[in-house]
Design brief:
InterPro entries: Fe-S_Maturation_MIP18, FSCA_dom_sf, MIP18-like. It holds the Pfam family FeS_assembly_P. This is MIP18 family-like domain-containing protein. Helices cover 25% and strands 21% of the residues. It is an alpha+beta fold. The protein has a single domain, classed as Fe-S cluster assembly (FSCA) (GMP Synthetase, Chain A, domain 3, 2-Layer Sandwich). The strands form two sheets. It has a three-stranded mixed sheet, covered by helices on one side. The chain has a two-stranded antiparallel ribbon with strand order 1-2. Helix 2 links the parallel strand 4 and strand 5. The longest helix is centred in the middle third of the chain and has 12 residues. The radius of gyration is 14 Å and the shape is globular. The N and C termini lie far apart (37 Å).
């Protein structure tokens, strides 16, 4: 990228996380509403809080690897810490309008 992106880290991180697609649903994890928080510490650790659509999701390892790959692309990220939580529980209400439309949920 040739121009400097001065947006806050969280915005840039959410943008690249839209590249992580849930292969079962074909929708990215941001628009599915799976990302609850993302922050970068002063020492370069990206702390990501997320949930899964179901506990015991068979895609956990795939999503973990894809998330790390996207976030480690930032020069300022030294390490990625992914914290999977189930409270608050995920529901279709957390999905973006676009994701709902794409899945035919009105």
């Amino acid at each position: 990228m040739s121009e400097i992106d001065n947006r806050p880290f969280k915005e840039k991180a959410l943008d690249v996380l839209e590249n992580v697609i849930d292969p079962e649903l074909g929708i990215d994890i941001v628009n599915l509403g799976l990302i609850y928080g993302v922050e970068l510490t002063d020492d370069g650790v990206c702390n990501l809080t997320m949930t899964l659509t179901i506990a015991g999701c068979p895609l956990t390892d795939y999503l973990d690897e894809a998330i790390r790959e996207e976030l480690e692309g930032f020069d300022e990220v030294r390490d990625v810490n992914i914290n999977v939580v189930f409270e608050p529980a995920w529901s279709i209400d957390k999905m973006s309008r676009e994701a709902k439309l794409e899945l035919g949920i009105h």
